[in-house]
Write a structure and sequence with these properties.
Helix 3 packs antiparallel against helix 4. The chain is mainly alpha-helical. The protein has a two-stranded antiparallel sheet with strand order 1-2. The chain is built from 9 helices and 2 strands. The chain has 2 domains: 136 residues, no CATH class; 59 residues, Arc Repressor Mutant, subunit A. It is elongated.
Length: 214
């Protein structure tokens, strides 16, 4: 989820709550920048350096920002950024948005929202669930990465190293995306070979416009 993690387009993701990063997200979401939104963002930035517990600071940051018109997504992004800052992480992880969708947190048919009376409790539960899922995913990707690295020496195609590096750094890769001097046909054959060796998976299940990843 690139948007919720701050994106990769020229931003310093180690400083997600800096004005440049925050207002880049604001611009991407096409939000109106007025005094109310600026004040809410400033409050979220202060919470990120407060002495509050990490999930409580994140929950309060989201609650404040979500009161601004159309700022629901921004509120969740800032919650993750505030959590990362309070835990001294080098960069935020996109945790809260997906975890809030879990059926166990729904009440009256609706997912938790920062304006709810029990938002703080829901936020803490969601972060606990998201952290466990992130640890499981980390372990799974680690095993998949090692498998890809293990099969790499069996590849003979020139330029295969660049493809391997891309697969290790991206969520999904298009075989049509040019990598060095390799032709489209060569790239397709390389990805077919990687799948046959168990190094990567085809992610879409389609016969065309395929995507590959760990």
């Amino acid at each position: 989820m690139p948007l919720l993690s701050g994106g990769r387009h020229g931003l310093d993701r180690s400083a997600p709550l800096g004005d440049e990063s925050v207002f880049h997200i604001v611009e991407t979401l096409q939000l109106k920048v007025d005094d109310g939104l600026r004040a809410a963002i400033a409050d979220a930035q202060r919470l990120a350096v407060s002495t509050q517990g990490a999930p409580f600071a994140a929950a309060q940051a989201a609650r404040i920002v979500a009161q601004q018109p159309g700022a629901g997504i921004l509120a969740l992004w800032l919650a993750d950024a505030a959590l990362a800052a309070r835990l001294s992480w080098s960069r935020p992880l996109p945790l809260i948005a997906g975890a809030l969708m879990h059926p166990s947190l729904r009440s009256g048919g609706h997912r938790p929202y920062p304006g709810d009376a029990d938002w703080t409790r829901s936020c803490c539960v969601a972060y606990g669930r998201a952290a466990a899922q992130a640890c499981d995913l980390f372990a799974e990707l680690g095993r998949s990465s090692q498998k890809l690295i293990a099969v790499a020496p069996r590849l003979r195609a020139r330029g295969a190293g660049a493809v391997i590096e891309t697969l290790l750094n991206e969520d999904a890769v298009l075989p049509s995306a040019r990598r060095g001097a390799m032709s489209d046909r060569g790239l397709r054959r390389l990805f077919d070979r990687l799948v046959a060796l168990g190094g990567v998976r085809e992610l879409t299940g389609r016969s065309t416009f395929r995507l590959y990843g760990l």
